[in-house]
């Protein structure tokens, strides 16, 4: 059974940085695209970033482009999300997810395994 465990969230001031990690087990990680999503209070879950199975293709939501970086270490079964220049509107629970595909995809419907989430709070 697939298991995804996020860590690295916390409270940070605007302009600060955080690095989220997601350790994955129970699936063939090196053949699976991964993604990060977030959900703010009272809002729907939204796509943040995605990375292909080999790390050579990455895509970002417009709201985070140029500030966030997704990466992966297939030897460690881990996907990362580097968050820089954080803004109060980035406050949300951040979830990592494993796709049904090897290619990077942005729609939540194409993700079949999800972590429990890690809270990121950005103060102004």
Features:
single chain; 124 residues; four-stranded antiparallel beta sheet; 0% helix
- Counting DSSP H or I runs of 4 or more residues, the number of helices is 0
Shape: globular
Termini separation comes to 40 Å
The biggest beta sheet is recorded as: 7 strands, mixed
Explain this structure.
The chain is mainly beta. It contains no helices and eleven strands. The chain has strands at residues 3-7, 10-13, 18-25, 34-39, 46-51, 58-60, 68-73, 78-83, 92-99, 111-114, 118-123. The strands form two sheets. Strands 2, 4, 5, 6, 9, 10 and 11 form a seven-stranded mixed beta sheet that branches. Strands 1-3-8-7 form a four-stranded antiparallel beta sheet, with no helix packed on it. Strand 7 (68-73) and strand 8 (78-83) form a beta hairpin. It is globular and about 40 Å long.
Write the layout of secondary structure elements.
Elements: E1 3-7, E2 10-13, E3 18-25, E4 34-39, E5 46-51, E6 58-60, E7 68-73, E8 78-83, E9 92-99, E10 111-114, E11 118-123
Parallel strand pairs: 2-11
Antiparallel strand pairs: 1-3, 3-8, 4-5, 4-9, 5-6, 7-8, 9-10, 9-11
